[in-house]
């Protein structure tokens, strides 16, 4: 499978005297008097296990450091590095002996602006419910890089990750030169996914495009089984183009000669380009509609939000095509179904994906003592997805019925009841950040106005820098608590946009009144502390409902801080 000898041996295991004291060796007299105490052989096995775990922890950190070395600090729109040449991906596949494997791989390839990760998750869950072995590659990760690689619906184990990681990294490092440098961060992760899925012999590989489509590392796949394009909108315009037509052209770059493809209803400008690209490659491009409640036979989707019915509809068509062509199953055409097959419903209902319409209570707050602190997490970062997020949040916080609210917490995290609360006892707070390449003048009005139209008004908006940094892959253990020297200029820009929206609604108020509606914090932990302090100071009948959005990185950072 992979060479264990390729894992670096630089990690040393040192045992402290305190640790050695745990190795208790009983005398024969004590052993006779206290037979329930652990045997020497058991203690030795336990000691070896702890040594192994300590060594593996160090090895994992070493792998993350090596992975971080592949991250360039250049803008993603900067193409000055030789390692950005798309054709290099095929050289890397050759160096890793993956050329034949990738040709045999039964791939479902999905691009899009929003919803592509959810579509991939739905698709994988459906195919797995039929008993097939699945591999799912998505991005970004929220807490641990292993989230990007799922085998049969579960994140790859540390042990397997380390083995495959060092096999690929060392092989590429040994053969890298000026003309074929080490691959950049995302390209390496895509190559690692190909290696993992090939070695694990998955039946279906579901690949989410990282950025764009045409020049994305996942587009090394030359003969997928089926392709999908989720909803298109304005995002990454500095790379993909400043019109929907240009963006659609980049996304359609995953189309392959004669390979069927599906998409959802798109704006006319985008749809025309998709149809034109499909026609040139003899691609049968079908437009699918959102799923209806009738098709689900009363079941609810595993991912919340009205927009997920659109993603689920696309997933049903992608999974049906794969099951018919590769699984050789007689699956009816989705357009001819009155009710979805049982396995489809099971897959759609049981899917999970962190950071998408997810509700998680703060596990460090004692519920029903000094109020509640509930986080509503969604990584929306485009104008269209921000509007969808706002609709979901507005519906979720209203707590229309007990069963709907309880389901939210089951999807997010267990451990707290979710009784119906009236609007008088709830305060909605926004916790926001986004990348500086995005336009807050598009994002924040969509969010605020959509919520306001549903009767939801934010008591306060908090703007924070992300904890995780883009040039380092790490774990929760090495996240900084606070940086007094952090550059907060972007956060103050976001605050200014927000305050202008507040002022436009509150004309005639005295100067300084609006300043109490938002705050900039030097770090996320400081903002979380403020929220927790506010809960402790509030009455026991007050619930704080915090919407975290604008960045999946921010969502991941919050999850690290509120989960035990």
Overall 3D form: globular
Helix content: 40-55%
What topology, given as strand order, has the largest sheet?
Answer: 4-3-2-5-1-6-7-8
Unreliable sequence segments: 2-6, 9-35, 400-423
Report, as a whole number of angstroms, the end-to-end distance: 35 Å
How much strand? 5-15%
What's a concise summary of this model?
The protein is an alpha/beta fold and 564 residues long.
What does the secondary structure layout of this molecule look like, with pairings?
Layout (H helix, E strand, L loop, with lengths): L16 H4 L7 H6 L6 H29 L19 H8 L3 H6 L2 E5 L4 H14 L4 E4 L11 E3 L2 E2 L2 H18 L9 H15 L4 E5 L17 E4 L7 H4 L3 H8 L9 E3 L4 H13 L4 E3 L20 H18 L16 H9 L7 E4 L10 E6 L5 H16 L3 H11 L13 E7 L7 H14 L4 E6 L25 H17 L12 E3 L3 H14 L5 E7 L2 H11 L2
Parallel strand pairs: 1-5, 1-6, 2-5, 6-7, 7-8, 10-14, 11-12, 11-14, 12-13
Antiparallel strand pairs: 2-3, 3-4, 9-10
Helix pairs in contact: 3-7, 6-12, 6-13, 7-8, 10-11, 14-16, 16-17
Enzyme class: ligase
Pathway: Cofactor biosynthesis; tetrahydrofolylpolyglutamate biosynthesis
Catalytic activity: (6S)-5,6,7,8-tetrahydrofolyl-(gamma-L-Glu)(n) + L-glutamate + ATP = (6S)-5,6,7,8-tetrahydrofolyl-(gamma-L-Glu)(n+1) + ADP + phosphate + H(+)
């Amino acid at each position: 499978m992979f060479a264990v000898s390729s894992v670096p041996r630089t990690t040393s295991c040192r045992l402290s005297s305190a640790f050695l004291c745990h190795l208790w060796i009983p005398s024969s007299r004590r052993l006779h008097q206290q037979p329930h105490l652990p045997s020497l052989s058991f203690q030795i096995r336990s000691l070896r296990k702890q040594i192994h775990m300590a060594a593996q922890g160090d090895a994992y950190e070493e792998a993350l450091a090596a992975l971080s070395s592949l991250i360039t600090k250049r803008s993603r729109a900067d193409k000055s590095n030789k390692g950005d040449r798309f054709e290099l991906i095929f050289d890397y596949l050759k160096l890793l002996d993956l050329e034949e494997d990738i040709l045999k791989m039964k791939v479902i390839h999905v691009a899009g602006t929003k919803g592509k990760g959810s579509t991939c998750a739905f698709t994988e869950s459906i195919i797995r419910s039929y008993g097939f072995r699945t591999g799912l590659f998505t991005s970004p990760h929220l807490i641990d890089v292993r989230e990007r690689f799922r085998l049969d619906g579960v994140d790859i184990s540390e042990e397997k990750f380390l083995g495959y990681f060092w096999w690929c990294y060392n092989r590429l490092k040994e053969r890298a030169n000026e003309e074929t440098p080490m691959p950049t961060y995302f390209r390496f992760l895509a190559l690692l996914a190909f290696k993992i899925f090939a070695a694990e012999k998955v039946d279906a590989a579901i690949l989410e495009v990282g950025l764009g489509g045409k020049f994305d590392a996942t587009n090394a796949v030359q003969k997928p089984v089926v392709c999908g394009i989720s909803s298109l909108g304005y995002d990454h315009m500095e790379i993909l183009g400043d019109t929907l037509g240009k963006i659609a052209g980049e996304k359609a770059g995953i189309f392959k000669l004669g390979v069927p493809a599906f998409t959802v209803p798109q704006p006319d400008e985008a749809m025309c380009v998709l149809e034109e690209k499909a026609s040139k490659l003899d691609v049968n491009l079908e437009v699918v509609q959102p799923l209806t409640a009738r098709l689900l036979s009363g079941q609810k989707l595993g991912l919340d939000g009205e927009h997920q019915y659109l993603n689920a509809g696309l997933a049903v068509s992608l999974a049906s095509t794969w099951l018919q062509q590769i699984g050789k199953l007689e699956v009816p055409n989705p357009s001819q179904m009155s009710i979805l097959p049982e396995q489809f419903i099971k897959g759609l209902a049981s899917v999970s994906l962190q950071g998408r319409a997810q509700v998680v209570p703060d596990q460090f707050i004692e519920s029903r003592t000094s109020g509640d602190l509930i986080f509503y997490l969604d990584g929306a970062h485009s104008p269209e997805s921000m509007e969808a997020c706002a609709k979901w949040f507005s519906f979720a916080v209203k707590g229309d019925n007990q069963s709907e609210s309880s389901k939210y917490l089951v999807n997010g995290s267990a451990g707290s009841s979710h009784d119906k609360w009236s609007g008088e006892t709830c305060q909605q707070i926004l916790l926001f950040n986004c990348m500086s390449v995005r336009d807050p003048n598009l994002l924040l009005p969509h969010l605020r106005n959509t919520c306001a139209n549903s009767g939801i008004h934010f008591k306060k908006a908090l703007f924070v820098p992300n904890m995780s940094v883009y040039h380092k892959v790490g774990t929760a253990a090495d996240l900084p608590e606070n940086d007094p020297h952090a550059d907060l200029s972007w956060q103050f820009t976001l605050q200014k946009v927000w305050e202008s929206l507040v002022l436009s609604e509150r004309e005639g108020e005295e100067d300084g009144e609006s300043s109490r509606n938002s705050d900039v914090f030097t770090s996320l932990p400081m903002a979380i502390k403020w929220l927790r302090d506010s809960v402790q100071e509030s009455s026991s009948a007050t619930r704080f409902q915090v919407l975290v959005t604008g960045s999946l990185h921010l969502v991941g950072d919050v999850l690290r801080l509120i989960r035990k």
